[in-house]
């Protein structure tokens, strides 16, 4: 992770240059403080007290203030502060309760200046007055705060917090006489330095110790406090009662808090345990840190911004015996990592989308956070480019329908529920499904069904109202009827000699053919014209004489002894294995070289993806001409199914697979079929279409699939008379030879829903038992059992 | 538009298996569940328990009950469970050293397994072993700097289902994809000894990979993964030949901004992509990969 950028900032006169760097200290640091020239930093700890120069590339040790062979406890520092007006003046708080000042201007090696031994216990904090050169404040574990005038030998005044230890003291930057102190009991006190008798104000800021506080460098009256309750709170102290404006939740207790220069809402925090990182928060975004410095390996004990007007350099000291300079630019920014958007496809094809609302939207539309309402000016301020994000973050969550006006996946549900997959002749199934598809506005699917019907149903069996579908708009009953008559006649006329015999003569059949194709073409040309008169009239007149024969070809009237009559395989339920009997392979040979074959092939291929009723009709026409056996289309149908499956319409693939059954099964490899089945069943179950799903499982030809609903279907039944398990199949008990499924209420044999108590084996009609149980909880058979039904 | 009343940015929104409930998670540390049936939006639960921004949520398959997993910046993964209408924390996994960015449940056929990708570079796999116990496996250093996304491959059985008599658990090969800050997409496979091994490294992005999504295998003959990145590009990876396991990328689109999310429709025929422009683009990656529709969330003007 090489991220070594260099930052140079010119701050009126002085220039700050530097990069992220660190140096090893001899001992853990407890506190750091920066000289006002921003070029030196002092590090203090239990056994360290050194001044380092901050150079461009590194820290350079300049001075070790810990002199003498046997350093006294006075040198064991809990805190250190560098005077912001006098470069030579430092103060430390010793763990033995002594407050020491240091004068770097002293010529001797020992720079120690004054010693105040007034506190009884550890001094936690020292603080210089921001503008008054000689005023020093201290806060101690003994519960007292003392104000020293450095020109005098002892304290000027003592402030009693009337409570446990003082954790932090800070002079207000704006109000000359005011300072804040924080306490272990969760209180914050505000004092006037002239009135040591009692505090100006006191309030409970945190639950548990308040470890630190920091006055906002610009905003008069903003005080940030940090506590063991893992919270940082920003208070407005200008109002009569301190008002909580912001609250930031961190993941560990807050040991130090420092406002970031030039960034009004930013503050840096570090923790005294668990968490070693330093965070910079935007108080308006209390949940995600704006930046995070992860360099330290142990608890960070001191943080300080290098220059009061430069937001990019942060210095820190740590228990891991290192001193670091962090560059804001190099910080990891969890906000940047964060996904500002959430996206999810719903089941019905709707999209849920959550996106960050831009600041602009927030400005114009939304109410800002309550805390900001007081400062609407903020929104107009030009945003600091150093800020990693622009103001408030909130998200708008929208749900889109992907198909405007339609219900997304609604078609899937409708189709699944309405498709007929078995139990009727193939042609009817195809017609029904085509109709369903068309009603749902899925024309391509409808066309496919119609095509399948034409391919797989031998022409003689085409029921009426067929072309009705292929033409598209559901015309009059008369015309399509005639059309199909015509087709029926035409195909055999061309296809086989025997059928030719049955027609009235060669010439005659030719005419019919010509006429019918003319009809078809007419139909194509004006597919919208419902029942155009010309062909209808013509056909009526022409075909009249053949009606008897046509009836012979009808499934119902077919003579079994007629060798040429192709029995409707579709009449059988599809799940039965039927030997496919194509109308005769010899026809294929007859016409294999005919130009029609290649033509029709090309046609069909071209229309597989997007077909129109025009091409469809011409294809069907060609098919009848050439009398191709359905086998011929196996490959084509397979490709078609693959096409639908790839489009995500596995429903179509499976439905066709089931409807066509044996006709296509052999063309598609078992694994693919299985995959389609399982995918489709999965989908059906997601849509809670249990019945459809079950039907599909039942109808599936794949063993692996059909065994899906055979898992755990065994019921163990006891005979209601002899109470022994029934071993044989059926409802007659082997032992007592009585029917076990008698209703205990009406004493009839139960057919249909049977409910029984697992305790006493008695039961009966669901209705009867339910009624019985309304009045009594005992078994209706009178066995005395308190029946339980779940 | 759903009013979530989240107090900060929403990072993820996920619909459950039946499309009836929507779970959202936000920087405000909360996870919320809404009933969105019939166009309504009723807040069912407001789950508090994370101590940092919650990045992602994931619904488990309903056959295991109502279970939701969430992962957060606080380095924790929490598994929530509904019992008698109330949602409660059922398990907390604190095995990561950094923010956990992504969670994803394995296909239900494998049992209850959760993959979690974290900024510490590791991916952990939590497997429910019954009685409230979870077994943890960890892939250390899966992605240097961090893992941003995990996505399971659909359950596919080697060979035909037919070889396995009903009732016996078929021998699934478990796989998932992960995307990380090393600009890579990695494919992981469970070895026979139960250890996870890097199977493939897919390299095409020039910046952090933000999201990966393995397409549901409905009707598709090939394995397909969509990935998106900080570099603005969306790739569709396909593996036509499972035996050689070679994957080829196809650039679907190059956006001018970060692409945060990719999401497949349940039939895998449409890919939704959300980018830095705050819009959702839907693409049909097949047959030319043309863009279909662009959705723009309504601005909150006047509300």
UniProtKB/TrEMBL annotation, chain B:
Record localization: Lysosome membrane; Nucleus, Nuclear pore complex
GO terms of molecular function: structural molecule activity
GO biological process, one term: mRNA transport
Superkingdom per UniProt: Eukaryota
Chief location of this protein within or outside the cell: membrane
Any one Gene Ontology cellular component term annotated for this protein: lysosomal membrane
PROSITE patterns: WD_REPEATS_2, WD_REPEATS_REGION
UniProt KW keywords: Lysosome, mRNA transport, Nuclear pore complex, Nucleus, Protein transport, Repeat, Translocation, Transport, WD repeat
Pfam families: WD40
Gene3D superfamilies membership: YVTN repeat-like/Quinoprotein amine dehydrogenase
Mapped WD repeat ranges: 3-44, 47-90, 202-237
Subunit annotation: At the nuclear pore: component of the Y-shaped Nup107-160 subcomplex of the nuclear pore complex (NPC). The Nup107-160 subcomplex includes NUP160, NUP133, NUP107, NUP98, NUP85, NUP43, NUP37, SEH1 and SEC13. At the COPII coat complex: interacts with SEC31A and SEC31B. Interacts with SEC16A. Interacts with SEC16B. Component of the GATOR2 subcomplex, composed of MIOS, SEC13, SEH1L, WDR24 and WDR59. The GATOR2 complex interacts with CASTOR1 and CASTOR2; the interaction is negatively regulated by arginine.
Similarity-based family: Belongs to the WD repeat SEC13 family.
Its biological purpose: As a component of the GATOR2 complex, functions as an activator of the amino acid-sensing branch of the mTORC1 signaling pathway. The GATOR2 complex indirectly activates mTORC1 through the inhibition of the GATOR1 subcomplex. GATOR2 probably acts as an E3 ubiquitin-protein ligase toward GATOR1. In the presence of abundant amino acids, the GATOR2 complex mediates ubiquitination of the NPRL2 core component of the GATOR1 complex, leading to GATOR1 inactivation. In the absence of amino acids, GATOR2 is inhibited, activating the GATOR1 complex.
Name the UniProt record assigns to this protein: Protein SEC13 homolog
Gene source species: Homo sapiens
């Amino acid at each position: 992770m090489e991220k070594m950028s260099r930052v140079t900032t010119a701050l009126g006169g002085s220039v700050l240059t530097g990069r992220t760097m660190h140096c090893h200290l001899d001992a853990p640091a407890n506190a750091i403080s920066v000289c006002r020239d921003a070029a030196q930093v002092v590090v203090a700890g239990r056994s360290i007290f050194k001044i380092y120069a901050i150079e461009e590339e590194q820290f350079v040790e300049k001075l070790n203030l810990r002199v003498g062979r046997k350093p006294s406890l006075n040198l064991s520092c809990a805190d250190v502060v560098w005077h912001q007006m006098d470069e030579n003046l430092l103060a430390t708080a010793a763990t033995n309760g002594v407050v020491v000042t240091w004068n770097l201007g002293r010529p001797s090696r020992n720079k120690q200046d004054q010693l105040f031994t007034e506190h009884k216990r550890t001094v936690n904090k020292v603080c210089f007055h921001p503008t008054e050169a000689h005023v020093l404040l201290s806060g101690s574990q003994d519960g007292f705060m003392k104000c020293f005038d450095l020109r005098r030998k002892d304290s000027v005044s003592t402030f009693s917090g009337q409570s446990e230890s003082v954790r932090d003291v800070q002079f207000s930057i704006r109000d000359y006489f005011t300072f804040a102190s924080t306490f272990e009991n969760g209180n914050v006190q505000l004092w006037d330095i002239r009135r040591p008798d009692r505090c100006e104000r006191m309030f409970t800021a945190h639950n548990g110790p308040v470890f630190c506080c920091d006055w906002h460098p610009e905003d008069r009256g903003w005080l940030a406090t940090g506590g063991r309750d893992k919270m940082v709170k920003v208070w407005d102290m200008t109002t009569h009662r301190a008002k909580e404006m912001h609250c930031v939740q961190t993941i560990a207790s807050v040991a130090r808090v420092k406002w970031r220069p030039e960034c009004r809402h930013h503050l840096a925090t570090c923790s005294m345990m668990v968490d070693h990182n330093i965070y910079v928060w935007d108080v308006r975004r209390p949940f995600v840190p704006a930046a995070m410095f992860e360099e330290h390996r142990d608890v960070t004990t001191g943080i300080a911004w290098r220059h009061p007007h430069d937001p990019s350099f942060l210095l820190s000291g740590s228990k891991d015996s290192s001193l670091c300079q962090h560059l804001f630019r190099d910080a990891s920014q969890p906000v940047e990592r964060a996904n500002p958007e959430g996206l999810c496809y719903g089941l019905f094809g709707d999209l849920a989308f959550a996106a960050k609302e831009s600041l602009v939207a927030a400005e114009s539309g939304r109410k800002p956070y309550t805390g900001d309402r007081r400062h609407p000016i903020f929104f107009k301020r030009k945003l600091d480019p150093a800020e990693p994000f622009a103001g408030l973050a909130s998200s708008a969550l929208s749900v889109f329908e992907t198909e405007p006006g339609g219900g997304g996946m609604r078609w899937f549900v409708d189709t699944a529920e309405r498709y007929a997959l078995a139990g009727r002749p193939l042609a009817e199934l195809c017609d029904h499904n085509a109709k369903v598809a068309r009603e749902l506005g899925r024309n391509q699917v409808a066309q496919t069904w119609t095509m399948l019907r034409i391919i797989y149903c031998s022409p003689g069996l085409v029921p009426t109202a067929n072309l009705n579908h292929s033409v598209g708009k559901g015309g009059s009953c008369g015309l399509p009827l005639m059309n199909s008559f015509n087709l029926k006649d035409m195909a055999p006329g061309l296809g086989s000699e025997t059928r030719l015999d049955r027609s009235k003569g060669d010439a005659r059949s030719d005419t019919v053919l010509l006429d019918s194709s003319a009809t078809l073409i007419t139909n194509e040309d004006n597919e919208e014209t419902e029942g155009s008169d010309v062909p209808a009239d013509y056909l009526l007149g022409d075909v009249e004489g053949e009606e008897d024969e046509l009836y012979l070809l009808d499934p119902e009237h077919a003579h079994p002894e007629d060798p040429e009559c192709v029995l409707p395989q579709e009449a059988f339920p599809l799940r039965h294995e039927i030997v496919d009997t194509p109308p005769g392979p010899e026809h294929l040979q007859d016409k294999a070289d005919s130009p029609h074959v290649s033509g029709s092939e090309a046609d069909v291929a071209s229309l597989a993806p997007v077909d129109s009723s025009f091409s469809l009709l011409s294809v069907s026409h060609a098919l009848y001409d050439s009398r191709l056996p359905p086998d011929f289309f196996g490959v084509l149908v397979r490709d078609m199914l693959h096409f639908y499956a790839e489009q995500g319409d596995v429903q179509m693939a499976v439905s066709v697979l089931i409807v066509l059954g044996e006709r296509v099964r052999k063309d598609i490899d078992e694994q693919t079929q299985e995959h389609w089945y399982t995918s489709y069943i999965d989908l059906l179950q997601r849509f809670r279409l249990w019945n459809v799903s079950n039907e599909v499982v039942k109808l599936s030809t794949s063993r692996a699939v059909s065994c899906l609903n055979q898992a755990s279907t065994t019921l163990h039944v006891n005979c209601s008379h002899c109470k022994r398990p029934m071993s044989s199949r059926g409802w007659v008990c082997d032992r007592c030879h009585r029917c076990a499924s008698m209703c205990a209420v009406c004493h009839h044999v139960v057919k249909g829903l049977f409910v029984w108590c697992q305790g006493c084996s008695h039961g009966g009609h669901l209705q009867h038992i339910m009624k019985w149980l309304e009045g009594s909880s005992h078994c209706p058979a009178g066995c005395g059992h308190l029946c339980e039904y779940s | 538009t759903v009013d979530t009343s989240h107090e900060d940015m929403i990072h993820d929104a996920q619909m459950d298996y039946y499309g009836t409930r929507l779970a959202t998670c936000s920087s405000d540390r909360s996870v919320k569940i809404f009933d969105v049936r019939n166009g309504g939006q009723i807040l069912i639960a407001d789950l508090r328990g994370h101590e940092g921004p919650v990045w992602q949520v994931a619904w488990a398959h309903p056959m295991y009950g109502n279970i939701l997993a969430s992962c957060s910046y606080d380095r924790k993964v929490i598994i929530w469970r509904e019992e008698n209408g109330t949602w409660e924390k059922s398990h907390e996994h604190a095995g990561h050293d950094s923010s956990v960015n992504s969670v994803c449940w394995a296909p239900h056929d494998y049992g209850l397994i959760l993959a979690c990708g974290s900024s510490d570079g590791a991916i952990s796999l939590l497997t429910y072993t019954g009685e409230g116990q979870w077994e943890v496996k960890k892939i250390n250093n899966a992605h240097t700097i961090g893992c941003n996304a995990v996505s399971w491959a659909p359950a596919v059985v080697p060979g035909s289902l037919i070889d396995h008599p009903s009732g016996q658990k078929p021998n699934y090969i478990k796989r998932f994809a992960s995307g990380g800050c090393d600009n890579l997409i990695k494919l992981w496979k469970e070895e026979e000894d139960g250890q996870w091994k890097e199977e493939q490294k897919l390299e095409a992005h020039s910046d952090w990979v933000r999201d990966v999504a393995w397409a549901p295998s409905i009707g598709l003959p090939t394995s397909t993964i969509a990935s998106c990145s900080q570099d603005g590009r969306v790739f569709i990876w396909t593996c036509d030949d499972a035996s050689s396991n070679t994957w080829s990328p196809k650039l679907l689109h190059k956006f001018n901004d970060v692409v945060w999310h990719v999401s497949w429709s349940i039939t895998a025929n449409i890919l939704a992509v959300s980018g830095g422009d705050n819009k959702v683009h839907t693409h049909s990656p097949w047959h030319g990969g043309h863009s279909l529709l662009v959705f723009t969330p309504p601005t909150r003007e006047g509300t």
